[in-house]
């Protein structure tokens, strides 16, 4: 049987055992604080993101470009059909880079 997140064994299938399992279940919670920093004077920063509903599902990409003051210079978002999550992230990077090269 496959493990659930955190390497724990799968939940039991009988109702009484499921209740017992859930009473003792403590998911591992992690967090990471991420700060956005402005680019240096005369430079621009392009942030990208891709998302999909499932790891093969309807996907969309987006990117935005900001100047050294943090002002939004350009933003774009679009749907790209059915893709895997990693493909979606890569396509977002490609589109952001294409825009930056053209401009």
UniProtKB/TrEMBL annotation:
<protein>
    <recommendedName>
        <fullName>RNase H type-1 domain-containing protein</fullName>
    </recommendedName>
</protein>
<dbReference type="InterPro" id="IPR052929">
    <property type="entry name" value="RNase_H-like_EbsB-rel"/>
</dbReference>
<dbReference type="InterPro" id="IPR036397">
    <property type="entry name" value="RNaseH_sf"/>
</dbReference>
């Amino acid at each position: 049987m496959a493990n659930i997140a955190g390497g724990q064994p799968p939940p039991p299938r009988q109702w009484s055992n499921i209740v017992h399992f859930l009473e003792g279940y403590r998911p591992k919670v992690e967090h990471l604080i991420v700060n956005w920093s402005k680019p240096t004077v005369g430079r621009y920063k392009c942030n990208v993101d891709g998302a999909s509903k499932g790891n093969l599902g309807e996907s969309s990409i987006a990117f935005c470009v900001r100047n050294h003051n943090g002002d939004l210079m350009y933003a774009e978002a679009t749907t790209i059909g059915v893709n895997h999550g990693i493909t979606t992230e890569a396509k977002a990077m490609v589109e952001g880079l294409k825009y930056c090269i053209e401009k």
